[in-house]
Automatic annotation (TrEMBL):
InterPro entries: Cyt_b/b6_C_sf (IPR036150), Cyt_b/b6_N (IPR005797), Cytb/b6-like_sf (IPR027387), Di-haem_cyt_TM (IPR016174). Keywords: Cell membrane, Electron transport, Heme, Iron, Membrane, Metal-binding, Oxidoreductase, Respiratory chain, Translocase, Transmembrane, Transmembrane helix, Transport. GO terms for molecular function: metal ion binding; oxidoreductase activity; quinol-cytochrome-c reductase activity. GO terms for biological process: respiratory electron transport chain. It comes from Nocardioides simplex (Arthrobacter simplex). Gene3D superfamilies: Cytochrome Bc1 Complex, Chain C. The lineage of its organism: Bacteria, Bacillati, Actinomycetota, Actinomycetes, Propionibacteriales. This is Cytochrome bc1 complex cytochrome b subunit.
Length: 567
């Protein structure tokens, strides 16, 4: 019997297989709501701007990490059992090392494509953390963290923390001399914790350092625990993104109530899929062309040796820099030594910086009193104090990170490492203050420039000479689209005055809190340039048209008029 679709001429031809598939899909939709959810979100609109791709770089580099990690898992042996290496890398043949180190060498030299996968995995980890940092900068500087996205901002901070820990555990797995030095440093950091430090170290390492359990434990964390948390947080991050709708830049037709862009299918899905292959291809090129983590040059870990110039991966460099430049502060109490020179840079500063990052949306919301929902982004220049705060934090991070290479800087530039250390001790405090002041004044200057363009138009580059010999440049009004974009922002709120607060009848703690908030808000918005009103723009345009007519009259009557001269 031939398998021919049946039809009665008035309904589409169907097959039994299609009918069964439709029945299964209908059964699933009635119980899980998948079809309804797909119909609702399949045409969801996403705005189109290059800055929104920074988050996608983080997402796709994480996918590359998962793919390459699965490959490496098939050959890596997470054991600290000591064996004699007899692989194909001749300089280390016959050397005793852990099974973890030996399997890393086997992946690098004896597994087809193993070295490429190792290097792709390591480069993808670098890209993952770097892109998360840059994405968070974009979110903060454009005000995308404001209500209703505060929870998503906290999730992003936790993703950055987990990505850093994941990078450290993966970096430690090969058990080479450099990664072993990093694990040894981690053991010292834990032991610097008052009262419970030695217990923490003993629990993690299964005895005295290095023990024989740290690599298997890091392996379980690296391939199971932390990736599971990362996947859960990324899923929550994406679901909140869909629920809140995407932020967008101001422009004609864009409001707080809509999103202007392309639908999920087919446009955005195709663009996102293509971007994944770009990220994958760039990571593959880096893995194939640029060497990274060449463990065979360092050899297996030996607790009696330390690699000269040893440094952690770049994202762990800033606390290492603080550790290098902090004075040797210690306190001795009741026979116990409290090592402030280890506690402050390693155990205090990283959690403190993370808490500051997580609190930024709530601090700004409390200070400004802004409880509205925001879906339009701000240009960084229109929030000078916010931008300056982030630049100050970036300066602190960058100087601390540079201090982590003080020995390399001293060697390469032929400088004294002591002088570099003393300079960095002052720079990490003075540098952020200078960066804050310069950035804030810069943003305010750019605001004034925008105001000048709105009121007086843009410079056309055409110079006109008057009959008296004076020169003037011809200004033209801004196109309506650009003018709309520059004015599509809210005026800054006006802080309460002390008189208003006193008149409100507030007393006690509430009175003090409101006065403090008013003073801080006054400083936060001080010198900001508000957008011109519609009347000011109309008056300026009328004045500009009058000046333009005068210039055109001077061109027609002056010495630089066009056409034959009168005799």
């Amino acid at each position: 019997m031939s398998k021919v679709a049946t039809t009665n001429g008035s309904t589409p031809a169907t097959t039994k297989g299609a009918q069964r598939a439709g029945a299964i899909a209908n059964w699933a939709d009635e119980r899980l709501g998948l079809g309804s959810a797909m119909k609702k979100n399949i045409r969801k609109v996403f705005p189109d701007h290059w800055s929104f791709m920074l988050g996608e770089i983080a997402l796709w580099s994480f996918v590359v990490l998962l793919l390459t990690g699965v490959f490496l898992t098939l050959w890596f042996d997470p054991s600290m059992t000591e064996i004699q290496y007899n692989g194909s890398y001749d300089p280390l043949r016959g050397v005793h090392m852990s099974s973890a180190m030996a399997s890393t060498l086997d992946i690098s030299f004896d597994v087809r494509g193993g070295l490429l996968m190792r290097q792709m995995h390591h480069w993808a980890a670098m890209i993952f953390i770097a892109s998360m940092m840059i994405h968070m900068l974009r979110v903060y500087l454009t005000g995308a963290f404001r209500k209703p996205r505060e929870v998503n901002w906290i999730i992003g901070c936790l993703l950055l923390l987990l990505g850093t820990i994941e990078g450290f555990t993966g970096y430690s797995l090969p058990d080479d001399l450099l990664s072993g030095t990093g694990v040894r440093a981690a053991d010292g950091f834990m032991k610097a914790t008052p009262v419970v430090g030695t217990y923490m170290s003993f629990f993690l390492f299964g005895g005295e350092f290095p023990g024989d359990a740290i690599i298997p434990r890091f392996y379980a964390m690296h391939i199971l625990l932390i990736p599971g948390l990362l996947l859960a947080l990324i899923a929550a991050h994406m679901l909140l993104l869909v629920y809140h709708k995407h932020t967008q830049w101001p422009g004609p037709g864009r409001t707080e109530q809509n999103v202007v862009g392309y639908p999920m299918l087919p446009v955005y899905a195709a663009k996102a899929g293509g971007f994944f292959f770009i990220v994958f291809g760039v990571t593959a090129l880096m893995g194939g062309l640029f060497s990274i983590n060449n463990v065979w040059k360092l050899g297996p870990y030996d607790p009696s040796k330390v690699t000269a110039g040893s440094q952690p991966d770049w994202y762990m460099g800033w606390p290492d820099g603080l550790l290098r430049i902090i004075p040797p502060w210690e306190t001795h109490l009741w026979g116990i030594t409290i090592s402030w020179n280890v506690m402050l840079p390693i155990l205090v500063m990283p959690p403190l910086m993370l808490m500051i990052l997580m609190a930024l949306p709530f601090i700004e919301s409390w200070l400004t009193g802004d409880k509205r929902e925001h879906h339009l982004l701000q240009r960084p220049r229109n929030a000078p104090t916010r931008t300056a705060i982030m630049v100050a934090l970036m300066t602190f991070y960058g100087l601390s990170w540079a201090a982590g290479g003080n020995d390399i800087i001293a060697i390469k530039l032929h400088l004294s490492i002591n002088q570099i250390t003393y300079f960095m001790r002052g720079a990490v405090f003075i540098g952020p203050v200078i960066a804050f002041i310069i950035t804030r004044r810069w943003c305010i200057s750019l605001q004034r420039h925008d105001e000048g363009k709105l009121l007086h138009g843009f410079e056309s580059g055409v110079l006109v000479r008057s009959p008296e010999g004076g020169y003037a440049e011809k200004h033209l009004p801004l196109p309506e689209g650009q003018a709309y974009t520059l004015t599509a922002r809210d005026d800054d709120p006006v802080p309460e005055t002390p008189e208003q607060i006193e008149a409100s009848g507030a007393t006690g703690r509430d009175l003090r809190a409101r006065k403090l908030r008013a003073r801080l808000a006054t400083l936060f918005f001080a010198d900001n340039v508000q957008k011109p009103t519609a009347e000011e723009i109309h008056e300026a345009q009328h004045h500009a048209e009058h000046e333009l007519h005068e210039l055109e009259s001077q061109i027609a009557a002056g010495p630089n008029r066009h056409g034959p001269a009168d005799h």
